[in-house]
Amino acid sequence: MIPQEYREFFTAAAGASGALIGLLFVAITVSPERARHEETRVQFRIRASAALLVFSNALTLSLAALVPDVNLGWWCLVSSLGMLAFAFATTRSWFEENRRSPGAWRPLGLVTGLLLIVGFEAWAGVRLVRDESDLDAIRVLDYVVITDLLMGIARAWQLASMRETGLLTSLRVLASGEEPAAPGVPSAAPAPEAPQPPAEPPTDGTRD
After folding, report:
1. DSSP for 25-80?
2. With 0-12 CB in 10 A as exposed, 13-18 as middle and 19+ as buried, what is 176?
3. Residue (of 145, 143, 167, 154) closest to 51 by Cα position
4. Among positive and negative, which fits the CA dihedral 10, 16, 19, 22?
5. What is the CB neighbour count within 10 angstroms for residue 204?
6. Distance between CA atoms of 65 and 125, rounded to whole angstroms?
7. Secondary structure of residue 187 in the 3-state scheme
8. pLDDT, tens digit, for every residue of 137-185?
């Protein structure tokens, strides 16, 4: 059973997760054409699914922590298995897309983040199965929920703009002052130059 001092955190996390899930569905419906475009279809589907997954993971853990006389460790283990399966499915989708179009978008940061969440969540789950009042495991689980929310917000922002929001990309934008082109989205064609007026013929200074 979760100690009383942690219940307020999970209550707030459950409310935040539910609100963010609602906003995520709004972000998905804003640009439905990206889900059908051949060059952005895979990225859109993976980012939308990843955001919904981490938000749902935070919501599930937070609600389960509020249920009286429940062992939260089993919920952690089941949720971590679901996230692990999604990480492998994302990797498989990228391999298939890379075979069709080499040099396509690489979800390495996304998969790495999911695997880190899975590792810490599974570790906390095992500790809580053995001892429901393990404070170290509960603290780790708190940070897992926070990471879920932050990662989901980042994926939702990428979903809305179809641009990378990583640290290196942000530093490069600040240094160069140029916004990077969205991966997989064809850049706009340059505007045609205005026709120049014909040059006037040279005059010799005499009149007929």
Report:
1. HHHHHH-THHHH-TTTHHHHHHHHHHHHHHHHHHHHHHHHHTSTT--HHHHHHHHH
2. exposed
3. 154
4. negative
5. 5
6. 12
7. coil
8. 999 999 999 999 999 888 888 776 655 555 455 555 556 655 554 444 4
Given 3-state DSSP classes, what are the helix, strand and coil percentages for the chain, each rounded to the nearest 5? 70, 0, 30
Question: Residues of the chain with pLDDT > 70: what percent?
Answer: 65
Instruction: Quickly tell me which residue has 């010799």 as its tokens.
Output: 204
Q: What is the pLDDT of residues 66-124, one digit of tens each?
A: 998 889 999 999 999 988 998 888 778 777 766 666 555 566 777 888 899 999 999 99
Cβ pair 49, 85 in contact under 8 A: no
Contact 43, 105 (CB under 8 A): yes
* Tokens standing for residue 43: 């990225």
d(CA 20, CA 159): 14
CA 164 – CA 113 distance, rounded (Å): 15
Higher pLDDT, 73 or 191: 73
The tokens for 57 are 């993971």
Largest CA distance in the chain: 110
